Amino acid sequence: QAKQHGKNNFQIFSYSKDITSYKKYVLEKDMRKAIDKQEFELYYQPQVETNTGVIRGAEALIRWHHAEWGLVSPGEFIPLAEENHLINHIGDWVIQKVCSQLREWKDNGYSLRPISINVSPIRFMKKGLVDLVKTELEKHNIPAKYLEIEITESSLLKNEKNVLAALEGLKSLGVKIAIDDFGTGYASLNYLREFDADTIKIDQIFIQNITADNKKDTAIISSVLHLAKGLEMKVIAEGVEEYEQLEFLKQNECDEIQGYLFSKPVPLDTYEQMLQTGYIKPTKPKVNAIPED
Ligand code: C2E
Ligand code: MG
Ligand code: MG
Ligand code: MG
């Protein structure tokens, strides 16, 4: 009986392992055609002013509607796309999509608010990023300041010469630069000073620990906030889910909030409804809500 049980466990384990590698295989195979099949969609997660909930902008986050697997999260397919370099193709689609979306908003009478996009370090290392951004902004006649490019702290730390050159190029276009997942890559303070980004996004790990009454994490957050103020950088706290976290961030004068307490990433039409109101009231996300979207 015990032996039988053990055998079953082994079967379950190897079955799920096969599922994982099968899924990986299918996703990788289908990724090439996904753009043409219009399976990618951008969701928007509002970034709001801490004290008022007024919408200041949003981060564009990619979603993949896969015929077999349904909604696939970027956490699952972006790493695959980075491995096989299809991320360049996908990333360029995101840039084009956001620029044409900004034009559409302008044409439809919305007062423009900046959109942040995530650009993979793989794309940063390849030539042509600055030219593409320039071309797309010009094509849609959008002032560069409405586009913000997020790069993770850890990819900045690699100090790749192409990455730094591309960042300089983007900055001279007038595009904003944000350091994403700040605090997870161990950048030195001196690095921050030299680098001169516009925005720091504090990683959600630090924010989530505010409730745990974690003295070390709250000390890190308040010193990042003070440092950023001195450097005249904007700070966005990511992953805010609790009123207690919001209160702490208000007291420490964090500029903006991006988190489920205000809104999850939402499809275009929902974001447009939010823009019409112009601000969002904090509401605690439901405990058993589906984690994705
Ligand atoms: P990220 O750039 O750090 O984006 C923030 C992630 O945190 C998003 O996950 C968002 O849904 C999630 N988030 C925001 N607020 C909360 C909260 O209050 N609680 C919790 N638990 N999560 C929150 P998402 O959309 O699944 O994206 C995951 C990552 O995938 C992104 O992390 C980014 O690194 C990558 N990604 C997404 N879209 C793109 C894209 O277009 N291009 C590239 N290269 N990477 C992307
Ligand atoms: Mg991001
Ligand atoms: Mg982040
Ligand atoms: Mg992240």
UniProtKB/TrEMBL annotation:
Transmembrane segments: none
Source organism of this protein record: Virgibacillus byunsanensis
Full-protein residues shown: 565 to 857 of 998
Domain EAL positions: 24-279
Protein name, as recorded: EAL domain-containing protein
